[in-house]
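Friendly challenge for the regulars: who can give me the structure tokens for this chain first? No prize, just bragging rights.
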Amino acid sequence: MLTSYAAHFDTPAGYLDFARFGPPSRDAVAAIAHAMEDSARADHTTVDGLMRAEDTARNTAARLAGTDAAHTVLLPNASTGVFHAALGVREGVVLVPRSDFPANHYPWRRSAHLGRATPRWLDPAPGGGVTPELVRAALTDDVVALSVSAVDFRTGFRADLAALREAIGPDRLLIVDAIQAFGVAELPWGAADVVIAGGQKWLRAGWATGFATLSDRALEHLEPVLTGWTGVEDVGLFDGAEHPPAPGAGRWSMTNLSPVTAAAFAAALELVERHTVAAIEAAIETRVAELTEAMTAQGARILSPTTPSHRAGILSFTLPRRDPGLVAKALHAEGVTPTVRPDSLRLSPHASTPPEATERVTAALASLRNR
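First reply, four minutes later:
Bragging rights claimed.
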């Protein structure tokens, strides 16, 4: 456990559902409360003061992604970013994993309905993910982009972004949903043209937070279809005319976001930057390795990759001859919070997760063996 990082949180020891939602830090909670208190006493300086949190969050997100603020935009969630990207592709085929989370399917389906990009569905092997070999086999001259998750939401499979970039070549777009990886996995974000992440999971910023980064190639080739009044040049000039889109990633802005949630996002990102992604990732890997060993000893079948370099913080499993719902009840009885699927369960610890969590999981699975 990364003790200095864990000291900022009040999350119960058995909470192992960060891939679904990451309980925020006291820092983020305090930032929200402070922003709300300021807004309740608003005067002529309040709104401008509160909105400075957006600059802080954008700058910190940019640094963590290895880019700058001009190539970074805050978003209310990851889905908004995927829709921007999908509707921005004017024409051509985009490779999309069929196994991906539905939020990464519907934007491409809507794009196809509008006669823009057409998705070509990739079918990774069970338990695997999108590999360079799978992508190369699907490439044709009409493919203009690859859309992929940095970390698979089911198994924690970690995509090799550098190898995927090499596979598609320099002229196609690489669009990455980083929601299951950003802030907890060191990946070469610069290999991607678009990086999109929501802040409510591993970044632990709460809902209605997120961002995207756009490369120069993305800014050149993606049409800003959803640009709103805050995403244009001369945003403060209300002259009744249509203004051109902003030159940088700000063109993906549709309207003003909540400065209250921006304050939480800024606090959460600052915590990651201060403690470093490398240290957070190492702490998570320690806990995943402990859980894997303990669960295997109790007869669990691990569905996630077993090689650390191929996985992130997600550990999916089944208990043979046991219904996932029954296993979930045993885990709940020990104070453990998993993700429950019809065919499996998913554990996802964070850097603040103590060794006690592994002991609780072991006790839960052992209780089922004795029934």
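Residues 277-297 form the longest helix (21 residues). The CA atoms of residues 292 and 325 lie 20 Å apart. Your move, everyone else.
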